[in-house]
Amino acid sequence: MKLGDSLTNIVSGMGTPKDKLSHSRFIPTLLTKFELDSLYSSDWLSGKIIDAPADDMTREWRQWSGGRRQVSALLSEEKRLNVQQKVNHALKLAALHGGAGIIIGDGSKDPSKPLDLGGIKRNGVKYLTVLSRWELNATDLDRDPLSEWYGEPKQYQLSGGDRIASLHPSRVVRFLGRPILEQSNWVDGWGHSVLQRVYDAVRNVNVAANNTASLTTEAKVDVFSIPGLNQNSIDPQYQRQIMARFGLANMAKSNQNALLLDAQEKWEQKQVSFTALVDVLNKLLEIASGAADIPVTRLLGTSPKGLNATGQADFRSYYDMLSGRQENSLSPAISRLDEALIRSAIGSRPAGIDFEWRSLWQMTEAERAAIAVQRAQTAQIYGALGALPPSVMRGCVTNQLLEAGEYPGMRELLEKAEATGEKAEPIITKAELGGNEVGAAPTKVAKT
Predict the structure, then answer these.
(1) 14/58: higher pLDDT
(2) pLDDT the model gives residue 12
């Protein structure tokens, strides 16, 4: 006896074999590499779905915290190895093909051995190479739950030119596209393409757009009623006369803006309305936008619609989602790379070095100026209260200004001042504040 838990109506056939929907099934049909490459290179919507999240997640990049010289060394090392661009490239490859990797090259003669992070000295990371899952051939997965490499390939086979190299997983920074949740179903350790889930929505948009474009050639059609056309059309001479007759009519219409018709002929013009088609196309674009989890205004590059609409709510929700990806997916993925980067930049692994992702939401000049004033007033209050030792307070304010990046070239100027032994001195005296309350803006411009 078979029991089911669903809504069934015998009279209408709903939920019975008579119902057409009862025969609908989801069947896994994975897109091939050729199809994915074709979608990315030929379809603008698919390309935008791949590029937009990766570009937005890495556009503002991150800011390091630590000593001034340490931060400066880290920034220089990131620039030397082109880390920001490499991570952006790996994210796009992973989203398109389901997986990608960045190879950490330390000049080792045997890359099949584990990467010794502790042995990396200054400039120890020689290069970073981005490869797709198809270029990094994964071997058998480590199925031991007690292993630190559980779920990752035991080795990677890298083929290029005349050489076939074996890479230890510690040398590869893995990026996944759409992850497969159950690791027991993993075959090679990679995920699925992001386009796999949105393929139907993207295809519907393209079909509707192409059909709408084809209809534009028939947006206006002239219809003529000619007596005896059916009986006489079999005569070749009559066919030539008809073509010559309407050629003359079109010529007169173009030159004289007049249409010549026989007294017994009838003419009417039929036009196609695209209003409903545009609504359907916009709705399909909204569905594709929801499937890709990207706001329509970002996906299409259009202004928000509606009275007093700014699109800020959509963008804030989108940026919050990307911030969650940065913290939950991207940061753990590049943690091994960062450990190697810190040692390669500084020569050791000092405590207290960390980073934060910069805000994806860009403030206006007025908003940034207002926040800068608030920070300055807060520092002034703490300094007046003696909450922190003066040297600590100066260091906190200096680090805050450096991380905010308000003054171009400030880091180099500070290093020059330290080298010459120049000390920080107030350029506005207490008397010049004009008797303002603590935390109030000074009334006199600073001396220069």
Answers:
(1) 58
(2) 66
Q: Please report, for the chain, how many H helices and E strands are present, in that order.
A: 15, 10
Report DSSP letters for 75-95, one per residue: HHHHHHHTHHHHHHHHHHHHH
pLDDT value, residue 447: 42
The whole-angstrom distance between residue 185's C-alpha and the CA centroid of its chain comes to 27
Tokens 């963008």, located at residue: 315
- Cross-strand pairs, 403: none
Residue 331 CA, chain-centre distance (Å), reads: 16
Confidence of residue 442 (pLDDT cuts 50, 70, 90): very low
User: Residues 173, 101: contact at Cβ < 8 Å?
Assistant: yes
Instruction: Please tell me the distance from the alpha carbon of residue 27 to that of residue 5, in angstroms, as a whole number.
Output: 22
Structure confidence at residue 49 as a pLDDT band (50, 70, 90): very high
* 194-249 pLDDT per residue, tens: 999 999 999 999 998 888 887 777 667 677 777 777 777 778 887 888 788 777 77
Distance, first Cα to last Cα, the chain: 92
Q: What CA dihedral angle connects 102, 151, 183 and 165, to 10 degrees? A: 50
Per-residue DSSP letter, 136: E
Which H or E run contains 127?
strand 127-132
Residues paired with residue 100 on neighbouring β-strands, in sequence order = 132, 175
Identify the three-state secondary structure at position 437: coil
Does the predicted TM-score (pTM) go above 0.90? Answer: no
Q: Where are the beta strands (DSSP E) in 185-239?
A: 220-225
Beta-bridge partner residues of 127: 105
Task: Note whether 74 and 64 are within 8 A (CB).
Answer: yes
Give which of 339, 337, 342, 326 is closest to 129, Cα–Cα. Answer: 337
Task: Report the distance separating Cα 369 and Cα 373, nearest Å.
Answer: 6
346-356: b (≥16 Cβ within 10 Å) or e:
beeeeeebebe
